[in-house]
């Protein structure tokens, strides 16, 4: 029973109030659950989470215990044992357990394999994640894309963020806790510097960092490679959801030269908001973007080279072609009609394929199967 005394079909466990990528993804899962017709509530799990936790979008759904017959855990594989340790055994044991996992490299880590035995099935938000996890899992790995729907800001002011009023702006956004080496903002800065002069104030690059105070050395490094460029602007602060939408909307092009993405929220969010995107043509983001609605950057696969967080040295990821990215930046800056066309195509694809209705229908079908066949 939840706080209102109603029996739940599903409990969504995750970083419900957290302002970082996996927290935002949990709220997208919630958007799909709203369309399933099943009763659900949310368990806010914030153990080991260093990000700000002030998002209130799902406050009315939050419960103090796991009471759904199906438990959907939107936490990664490495944190699944922590969830099991935290929850009372009765709540853990009675639920059919689904893990929604995000992984960014082609091979799922051996050290996380025990987590597979803690869940009944795994939902993969992209084909890239599904392929990686399926090779190691002994349970069903179901492709379950998440919806993308955002509130479009009515009033947008660049002055609020200290950005130039009339410049053509590129934007890159990332969380330092997601590993700067993987997110690769340095390549974005390098591509911009190859394309534009340091004193050309008709154009600019905005780099928004989350949790820059946690890994200050990463931010300091970016400031070093910025050099004398007056048209590169850093926003080292946490923004709420509406502010993130505002920032994307006030910029002209989003850029992600990631080495790998399990999902690629910046790309998907910008596309939903009708913005052209320049992105590495590899990993999770290729599920929802192609040359028809984005500028896809060439790459070569390289070894990670050293152990970086959960990413082992022997694994492979993409090295985006900075020269190609630079060429694409120059092309979009010079051709505003191309920007408009790509943005229109991008928004249409996300709205057609990743609406809450579409994703909710897929989710409902799977929940229905679980309840009728497996419980």
Number of domains: 2
Nearest-integer average pLDDT: 94
Helix-strand makeup class:
alpha/beta
Overall shape: globular
Q: Could you give me the name of the CATH homologous superfamily of the largest domain?
A: Glycogen Phosphorylase B
Overall helicity:
25-40%
Order of helices and strands: EHEEHHEEHEEHHEHEHEHEEEEHHH
Distance between the first and last residues' Cα: 18 Å
Number of strands: 14
Q: Which CATH-level-2 architecture of the largest domain? A: 3-Layer(aba) Sandwich
The biggest sheet, with number of strands, parallel, antiparallel or mixed sense and barrel status, is: 6 strands, parallel
In DSSP terms (H or I, runs of 4 or more residues), the helix count works out at 12
CATH class of the largest domain: Alpha Beta
What fold name stands as the CATH topology of the largest domain?
Answer: Rossmann fold
Cα gyration radius (Å): 21 Å
Uncertain ranges:
none
* DSSP strand content: 15-25%
Order of strands, widest sheet: 2-1-3-4-5-6
């Amino acid at each position: 029973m939840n706080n209102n005394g109603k029996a739940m079909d599903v409990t969504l466990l995750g970083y419900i109030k957290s302002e970082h990528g996996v927290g935002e993804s949990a709220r997208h899962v919630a958007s799909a659950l709203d369309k399933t017709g099943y009763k659900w509530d949310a368990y806010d799990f914030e153990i080991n989470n260093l990000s700000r936790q002030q998002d209130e979008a799902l406050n009315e759904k939050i419960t103090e215990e796991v009471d759904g017959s199906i438990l959907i855990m939107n936490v990664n594989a490495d944190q699944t044992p922590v969830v099991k340790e935290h929850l009372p055994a009765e709540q853990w044991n009675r639920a059919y357990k689904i893990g929604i996992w995000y992984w960014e490299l082609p091979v799922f880590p051996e050290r996380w394999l025990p987590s597979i035995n803690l869940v009944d099935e795994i939902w993969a938000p992209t084909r890239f994640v599904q392929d990686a996890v399926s090779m190691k899992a002994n349970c069903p790995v179901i492709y379950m894309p998440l919806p993308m729907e955002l509130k479009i800001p009515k009033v947008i002011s660049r002055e609020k963020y200290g950005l130039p009023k009339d410049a053509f702006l590129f934007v890159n956004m990332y969380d330092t806790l997601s590993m700067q080496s993987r997110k690769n903002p340095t390549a974005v800065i390098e591509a911009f510097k190859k394309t534009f002069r340091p004193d050309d104030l008709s154009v600019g690059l905005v780099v928004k960092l989350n949790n820059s105070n946690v890994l200050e050395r990463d931010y300091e490094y970016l400031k070093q490679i910025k050099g004398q460029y007056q048209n590169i602007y850093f926003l080292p602060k946490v923004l709420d959801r509406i502010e993130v939408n505002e920032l994307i909307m006030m910029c002209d092009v989003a850029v992600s030269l990631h080495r790998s993405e399990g999902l690629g929220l910046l790309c998907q969010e910008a596309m939903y908001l009708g913005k052209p995107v320049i992105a590495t043509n590899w990993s999770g983001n290729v599920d929802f973007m192609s040359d028809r609605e984005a500028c896809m950057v060439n790459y070569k696969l390289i070894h990670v080279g050293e152990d970086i967080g959960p990413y082992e040295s022997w694994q492979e990821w993409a090295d985006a072609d900075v020269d190609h990215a630079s060429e694409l930046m120059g092309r979009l800056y010079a051709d505003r009609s191309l920007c408009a066309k790509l943005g229109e195509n991008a928004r249409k694809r996300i709205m057609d394929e990743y609406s809450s209705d579409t994703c909710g229908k897929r989710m409902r079908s799977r929940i229905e199967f679980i309840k009728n066949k497996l419980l």
